[in-house]
Design a protein that fits this description.
Blueprint lengths: L8 H4 L4 H14 L10 H14 L13 H13 L2 H11 L7 E10 L17 E3 L2 E10 L5 E8 L4 H9 L8 E3 L7 H9 L3 E3 L21 H10 L3 H4 L6 H21 L1
Parallel strand pairs: 1-5, 5-6
Antiparallel strand pairs: 1-3, 2-3, 3-4
Helix pairs in contact: 3-4, 5-10
Amino acid sequence: MLQAGTLDRDQLGTRSDEEWAFFEHFILAIRATKGSKPTNHRLVLVGIFWISRTGSQWRDLPEEFGKWSSVYRQFRRWTLAGLWEGILDALNQSGAVPDALQMVDSTVIGAHHQAAGCKRGTQEQDFGRSRGGFSTKIHLRFNAHGLPMRTEITPGQTSDYLGFDLVMADNLPKPKVLLTDRGYDADPIRKNMNESNIQPQIPMRKTRKMRVGVDHTLYPLRNMIERCCNKHKRARRVVTRYDKTAESFLGFIDITSIRLWFRHLST
């Protein structure tokens, strides 16, 4: 089996030793005190990145990354332990990117037929039926640079209202201004933001009786959401859902979000 140092940068998936040192800090923090130590955490992480980028089945993982079943089991351990969420929270709390302006949006992801069949049922694993068919909806909260701050998933037919509550109900830095599309134009959402001293920038639905405008100098910044969603969908494990469990699929979404942060901070 090849060692991490013998792989080129494209295969490695991490740009530098400094980037790996960042991941290693979190990995070692959640590692169980008992049990055998993996031979190469870095190589396991790179194998997970490879699966995320290519969308391949776990059984097709190249031998250079180790035994596919071992890499898969480690991915599940890290995911269930909250590794990816912890890294995202640390990036959000770092203050490296302004967070006074934030944005919320959602996108529907088609699910592969092989993703069905989980023992706990499809509904419990956030599968549903939308206009796009068998699907899952990703709800995202972004900062002023279009970087993901929080990601949540629900069945494909779930309303944006419910998704809004999911991504806003946490301890992330509170925005001063929040941009959304008209799908979030609801009185409870506007009331909630006003009570939280957040300035809402939401286009009106045609049916709204009391007219409310938006700041046309701020709202065009929302194009960063579309750009970020497109970058997310470059990861083939995100653009199509192959995972049977909600935890695994959300794990790949968070992994892609973390890598977008690193690309931004490194440039």
